[in-house]
Amino acid sequence: MDTARPHTYRVNPELIFMVNEDGVFIDVIPFNEELLFRRKEEVIGRSIKDVFPPEHVSFFASSMQQCIETSETIFIAYNLRILSGELRYFQGIFIPLSISLQGKKCALLEVNDITDLRKTEQALKVSEARFKLICDTAYAGIAFCDMNGKMLFANKALELMLGHASEQLLHQNLNHYTYTGDLEEESILFQEIIDQKRNDYRLEKRCVTAAGDVKWVDMTMGVIRDEDDQKPQFFVAVIVDITSRKQQEQDLLQLNEAKDKFFSIISHDLQSPLSSILGLARVLNDKGITLSGEERDQMIGWIHEGTETTRQLLTNLLEWSRKQLGRLEYHPVMTELEPVITKDIALLDNIMRAKKISLHTHNINRMVYTDINILHTILRNLLNNAIKFSYPNSAIFVNGREEGNDLIISIRMKEQG
Fold first, then answer.
1. What local confidence, expressed as pLDDT, does residue 159 receive?
2. Is residue 130 assigned to a domain?
3. C or N terminus of the chain, fewer CB within 10 Å?
4. What is the 8-class DSSP label of residue 85?
5. 400 pLDDT higher than 50
6. What is the C-alpha to C-alpha distance for residues 154 and 143, in angstroms, rounded to an integer?
7. Containing domain of residue 229, as a range?
């Protein structure tokens, strides 16, 4: 029970009671008798104390007295069980009368049943509470926008996503945070909703945060239309941060490129040593070719060297692939450069002999701080390409040059074309 002024009040009462300053009911006019909590004859001529349940007496008596003494209308709200036993909720107003009956001031109590209205309001409150809970706990950012795209509501997730407090977001246009390069596409889709060509759209776009960072988001924009003329009333945007997914897609693309490059290097780097091994094996297997014991042993030695070269090449290629996948650790140590280069040259000796290419080194007798395996991979790849693009009967030069604390290794040759 309370005496607060209601937000709305029906002007056509369903029950009217007349009561005097002593709290005695003078008359009852029931426009809807089903709402009476006592029969009319049980009310007229009896006092508030005799008619109402004990827990209601003080409330009704004080409200009536206040109305008569101040000559002001008093609004009340209460609940009672009516004759059917059902608990109903009522809204009433005490109205002071300018006339007296039998020398006593009187007031009217006009009453309306608000049970259905109260149930609707309670259902609305529950709905609003659920909506607030969903918005407050949602992983996705949620925004309500007016017809111009200005935000009327933004949930916590959107605040965190964009790095702005709620008061900074409100009344700011949603596309204010859209990356400039994505504005045109979004504007076209937004206008199509205004023109009733679509009810929603989904768009992957970039947003700029308060810190100036660019985030990728997946945004779904929907419209709430008027039931009668179908004109847009407001918009609802659901925004999910997909920056991590976009980064993963980019990483996957780079891995695919690395994979393609890896297979290209394998086919390129393994073809020459395997061809040499196959050629020597064919000579050994050819019964029509007579070889001395020394020649046969030499060829077997070459096959062994070529096989070892190929095995080492595969090992280094696999290490390179792990590096591309971010799985190879870098372990630099102090090491002599010349033995490293000499070993890589030896692995490619058969290929150089086939093209009659000579290789010369200069100023490589130095100590360097590096990862030996990675250095092998780099040098072998450069040497392989130098041999591949060199003219037959030409020369390749491997030179070392000091620059401060660094040693620069250059590989020079006269390329074809």
1. 92
2. no
3. C
4. S
5. yes
6. 4
7. 138-241
What pTM value is reported for the model? Answer: 0.51
Q: 369 is written with which tokens?
A: 């701080």
Backbone φ and ψ of 348, nearest 5°: -105, 10
* Residue 106, CA distances (Å) to 15, 18, 21, 28, 61 in order: 17, 7, 6, 13, 13
How much of the chain, in percent, has pLDDT values that exceed 90?
Answer: 41
Domain count, the chain: 4
277 plus 308 within the same structural domain: yes
The 10s digit of each residue's pLDDT in 321-379 is 666 656 556 788 999 989 989 888 887 887 788 788 899 999 888 898 988 888 887 88
Decide: 151 and 70 in contact? Cβ < 8 Å: no
CATH number of residue 344's parent domain: 3.30.565.10
> Tokens in use for 340?
């490293």
Distance of CA 363 to the CA centre of its chain: 56
Taking alpha carbons only, the member of 163, 208, 211 closest to residue 181 is: 208
- Among 153, 130, 148, 133, smallest CA distance to 238 is for 153
Q: Where are the beta strands (DSSP E) in 150-279?
A: 151-154, 200-208, 214-225, 232-241
Same domain, 237 and 258: no
Give the CATH number of the domain where residue 187 resides. 3.30.450.20
**What radius of gyration, in Å, describes the C-alpha atoms of the chain?**
46
Q: Poorest-confidence range of 60-69, 202-211, 281-290, 367-376?
A: 281-290
Bridge partner list, 64: none
What is the distance between the alpha carbons of residues 189 and 183, in angstroms, rounded to a whole number?
10
Q: What whole-number distance in Å separates Cα of residue 19 and Cα of residue 45?
A: 9
Residue 148 tokens, joined? 């111009």
Contact 222, 234 (CB under 8 A): no
**Does residue 123 form part of some domain?**
no
